[in-house]
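lol ok so funny story. i was supposed to be doing the assay writeup but got distracted and ended up predicting the structure for this chain instead. priorities right. anyway since i did it might as well share w the group, maybe its usefull for someone
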Amino acid sequence: MPLTAPDLTESHRPRGKGRPRTVETAAPSLVELLNLVRSGAANTRQELERQSEFGRAVVADRLTMLGDLGLVDESELGTATGGRAPRLVRFANRRAAILVATLDQTAIGVGVADLSGNLLTEHHEAADLTAPPDELIDRMTALFRWSMDRHAPQGAIWGISLSVPGAVQGTTEGDFLTATPPVLPAWEGFPLIETLTRRFGVPVWMRSSVETMTMGELHAGAGIGMRSMLFIKVGRRIGAGMVCDGQLYRGAQGAAGLIGSLPTASGGRSGTLDALAGSDMIQREGLSAAQDGRSPMLADILRRGGEITAIEVSQAAQMGDAVSTEILSASGHLIGQVVAVLANALNPELIVLSGSIVQTNDILLAALREAVYGASHPFVTRDLRIIRSQMGSSAGLVGAARVASEALFAPGFLKEWVMQGSPLAHPAFVTLQDRLSADAAPPPPMTARAGKELST
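and the output, tada:
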């Protein structure tokens, strides 16, 4: 049974008490103080006064408002340093929850996260992205509801964040989607965003899987504290996520990092990096080696009725199959040549590789390292680390949660809803809901005109 907005939403009536306060006077200071607390830049009233340069009375007044709205908590005492122990100001990240999902070619993942983007629960299962979209979205809805029942979020749901295989066109800070972008060819014409917004009554954000995995690695994996990082996803498509000055770089249209489309050449053949080094190439070359007997290990799999995929080739290489090792090495060297160009341009502290092929063994990783170290300037590689991601399929969910968290509390977006205590009262979202409700409403019944009866 699909969820409806009343199941998940909360009252949009303005909250708070005391003297009247307008958005123009109170909202900017509320936004600044809340984000100082949320980011960890200040966690006492004294620190907030110093960081914001607001007076004591303003800080006290705004914290009272934020407390009434349920966005901060001051119930915990800090450590005394010669006087009275200060009262700590904490962001109430359990005030509400965020639903997150990853859609891959062969799998779907769902989870529940808090308002800081911390993943609270997750679930992954096999799925076919070419299946009818209404079936997949019904399954996603059921998994969302099951995850919520399993975790039992304390507050309402404030948003949904999706990770999808294709690039998602750029949006401005905080903007949620009002219509489904053309990112999934098999879903062309299906109102994914509109359907989720109607069913759950919350704003929806969407990013590419490479971007969300990069965000996950940056905030919860090996990239914690990094200012410059490259994240390389190896699969049927090969993509790069780029972190510059601690922030994900998306490009003008959200299409940064589409390195799989770059022209390359190898062994007398030319084509895109996807075609010559992606998992389709590994599968194709592995099948050829099995059919002509060059790889006894792969040939045995084929003889027993098994299917030759990139994973089988990777596993065979791990077990010492020479031809499979050669196939993976060729892929790694070719990807490494492209990554070396990025490394020379960006000078990252860290390069992280991910994907099921990379997780299976170290052969592709070793070949990529050799190519990058061999083709990069010595200054670039002096302290550079190239590692494999340890987050696996969790990276996309964590990154999707961070996307929604950062969007909800982006200053321009937050200013429009903070006085009401919920993003569901954001004027633009209320307008979207009204439009979707009107679009879904049945046409009004026909009535008689000018006193004349309708004929039957």
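The chain has a mean pLDDT of 87. The CA atoms of residues 322 and 408 lie 51 Å apart.
back to the writeup now i swear
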